[in-house]
Amino acid sequence: MSDTRQASDQQRAIQQQVDARDRQRGEEKAPSAMQAGARRYPEPPFPDQHHAKPGLESRIDPAPLYDAPFWKGSGKLEGKVALVTGGDSGIGRAVAVLFAREGADVALSYLDEHGDAEVTKAAVEAEGRRCILLPGDVSRRDACARAVAETVGRLGGLDVLVNNAAFQIHTADFEDLTEEHFDTTLKTNLYGYFHMAQEAVPHMKPGSAIINTGSITGIDGSKELIDYSMTKGGIHAFTRALSGNLIGKGIRVNCVAPGPVWTPLNPSDRPADQVATFGAKTPMKRPAQPEEIAPAYVFLASPQCSSYITGEILPIIGGY
Fold it and tell me: Could you confirm whether 228 is annotated as catalytic?
């Protein structure tokens, strides 16, 4: 047998093996969502649902998981004071709970979701820490100034700012994106971060931290979230630029950029049938739960964990 004949026979044999495995795989059940956490997390499909803005966590089915029962605090934020915008629900609620478990007192800025905010406050207090509620519209400079002033006045200082409040709603066609819609997104997502940071910095000491919530849409874009993607890309750039500006003050600035997370933001944006499959297209085939995102904020807030990290954008997107 010639060398060429032997090589072609070998290639066909390999092809037959792979073809047989492909046929077998096609007959197998589709892989389920990846479960690699301390407990099992909900998987799509979820019940069809669509909620009114700004969205209430108490109405979401299944309820988002935020309390991280297996997380053991170790004093990473002992004696710190944190201000969390959008702190009533979602990622903000999970961050507030873990911050408290690590020893921080927490101020919660939110719009008008008072019931959700009270639940978060009770969860923080159950960790043995103080919590104050600060309703207000972060798109307004005066609301940001009041939130910072009340945090400093009532809790005795400000060591960690988490800029997390956001507005998101899709538009399928670009020409349907109105100026009012565009303006609301930019004012909430960009002006809110800018105003809050500028008000906070004069009260922050060396070793303090600012953590911004970005998004995978700020990296990849989203064809139905053009305005939101713009703001999240802007937040990533804001993080990089501000981190350099504040190095001389000893204040670190970083950003967490999540993929799909099961919070009130998306069920109050997407049509009900799309909510049912939310997160299913990620490699892990499910959205993150808020308690899976919150540890990144603890890491970036704590001088014990990230004293040499500033200007970073940390994607948490369920795989590539």
Answer: yes
